[in-house]
Specification:
14 helices, MetI-like fold, 2 domains, mainly alpha
């Protein structure tokens, strides 16, 4: 097991380094001059030069990269060129929206996918299985932003039971949670469809194993066999998908946060791109990449802990 952890840590560190290079290089090739955008068309060359020097844009790219990575490792994400506040403060403020949103969406997708996957596997080839597969196919086909607008139309404008957008903050937790319900549902639908289909396939494969037939031959009911034995062994691929889903939900909320006008990390990145606030863009994107790679690393370790065969090959 120790060898697995050491190997995964090496891959983890290498992935973070490669991601930092790619993120910095991608920001470097973006056309346009942030200083010129900030000062306007009438800025003099001397003023532009002074602004570029104050932003650190007059330094060589390699030096700027090392300075950015060094600050990132120290927890110093720099200062926003537009908001004139530390990027870390912006991230902390916006993460208070994005992280709960991703967690709620993950919980909803899991709560929907588990019963659907179990029903489809238990009723394989029957009407219930066909219905579940049809619903999940629809969930995969419908774009989440279109589904989000449909939710707003029905629940906010027609029935008026939930807010259409915005976020009032966490001073009143109940009001804050109500504001996240519709966006969480919009995010959870495609993820629940993916998870249900993966769970169905894993359960069908496990139900064909010899020990399942032995359990049935000993008199264990089909439902008990499914829940006690099949579900536990089918959970390994589902665990991997859950880790990937949380990463996607955390990093992929830009569209949904803009549909619902939520002040989260996704909307912060979108606003920073339009304002050419490059230090915010690269720092937030790198933080999201770190979150994705970290969750993937922890998922792989959990997978190894759950599957003794992997530990045996270490």
């Amino acid at each position: 097991m120790a060898r697995i952890v050491i190997r995964r840590l090496a891959i983890f560190a290498l992935s973070l380094w490669a991601a930092s290079v790619i993120v910095f290089a991608a920001i470097e090739v973006v056309p346009g001059d942030p200083a010129a955008l900030m000062l306007g068309l009438n800025a003099t060359p001397e003023t532009l030069a002074a602004a570029r020097a104050s932003l650190g844009l007059d330094q060589p790219p390699a030096l700027r990269y090392l300075d950015w990575v060094g600050g990132f490792l120290r927890g110093d994400l720099g200062q926003s060129w537009t908001y004139k506040v530390p990027v870390a403060d912006l991230v902390a403020d916006r993460a208070a929206v994005s992280v709960p949103l991703a967690a709620i969406a993950l919980g909803l997708s899991t709560a929907l996918a588990l019963p659907l996957g179990l029903i489809a596997a238990a009723r394989r080839g029957r009407a219930a299985d066909a219905a579940v597969m049809g619903v999940t196919q629809l969930g995969l086909a419908v774009p989440n932003f279109w589904f989000a607008m449909l939710l707003v139309l029905l629940f906010a404008l027609h029935w008026r039971v939930l807010p259409a957008g915005g976020f009032p903050g966490w001073s009143d937790p109940a009001t804050g949670l109500r504001a996240l319900i519709l966006p969480a549902v919009a995010l959870a639908l495609p993820q629940a469809a993916i998870l249900a289909r993966v769970l169905r396939s894993a359960l069908i494969e496990v139900l064909a194993q010899e020990y399942i037939r032995t359990a049935r031959a000993k008199g264990l009911s089909r439902g008990a066999t499914l829940l006690r034995h099949a579900l536990r062994n089918a959970a390994l691929p589902v665990l991997t998908i859950l880790g990937m889903q949380f990463s996607f939900l955390l990093a992929g909320t830009i569209i949904i946060e803009n549909v619902f006008y939520l002040p989260g990390l996704g909307r912060l990145v979108f606003q920073a791109i339009t304002q050419r606030d490059l230090i915010v863009v690269e720092s937030v994107v790198m933080l999201l990449v770190v979150a994705v790679i970290t969750v993937t690393f922890l998922t792989e370790i959990a997978y190894a802990l759950a599957d003794p065969r992997l530990r045996g090959r270490a």
